[in-house]
Amino acid sequence: MTDREVRQARADDHDAVAGFTDDTWSDRNVGDYISEVFEEWVETDGPSQRTAVVEVDGEVAGVCQTHLLTDDEAWLQGMRVHPDYRGSGHGRALMASLFEWCHERGASVVRNMVFGWNAAGMGQSRAVGFEPVASCRWARPDPAADGPRPDGDFETVDDVIAAWRFWTHSETRTTLSGLALDTDEAWALAELSRDRLWTIAAAGRVFTVATDRTRGVAARIGTRENERGTVVDYAVGAWADTDAAVALFDAIRTDAAEVGADATRVWFPDTPQFTSDVAVARAQPSDDTVLVFAADLTRPTHR
Length: 303
Hints:
The chain has helices spanning 14-21, 34-44, 90-104, 119-127, 160-168, 171-175, 194-203, 242-258, 272-280, and strands spanning 4-8, 49-56, 59-68, 73-81, 109-115, 131-139, 155-157, 179-181, 189-191, 205-210, 214-226, 229-239, 263-269, 290-296.
């Protein structure tokens, strides 16, 4: 009989976790980040974050972490199961425990993100109760670089009220299921509520591009450091048409240069229209598509 336990991760689990995550995607020559961040994950666990492992017959067989992003939204990341233990329900047991933990703390939904090339990750997400809700990419316009000019007399305006009005009626919001990059977690998405947009405007910047009406919106949430230097993140880029996209990314290049950024990241919906608009604007759409999944925690079958 198999002895299985889901428990909070400990620092001394590091080597066991590294043992089955370091070569997660060896067939793609893509490294896994889990072993690099695991110790920090454990150290920072608390009321709004839990890192958990599933232990089978005394061996660590899986790992995952969840965050509470807002009062009712949770995010799940780093879901990994040891190859020797896959297909035996251990991943499902780990998810059920984390779903329950999130639900007990007020979350009504938990989401995760899987790269489009990761078929195993998508299958695992569906198997443990997630449903697909959005597909997105990020653009990387170079700060201060020259780009194409839009047709029309566009102006850039800091107007959070106009930005909110545009967002609520935009195809971007519909296609992204209302989601935008979280302000604290670099790879998490949460609903862009009115309050959150105002918070972004106060701490960062929310601006529009407009002619006789608002035709695009960007929301700058802050900067971070990585191998590319100082990266400035935009929670979302939303635009009405191709000319608006060209104008918006021109404004983003200028804004990024003004805050001293070396690189940018702007989230947008992954559709043929939006992705080709980014290409027209020479804003460097990412090669990778990202799929966002969600599990409804108000449904007992998902807990």
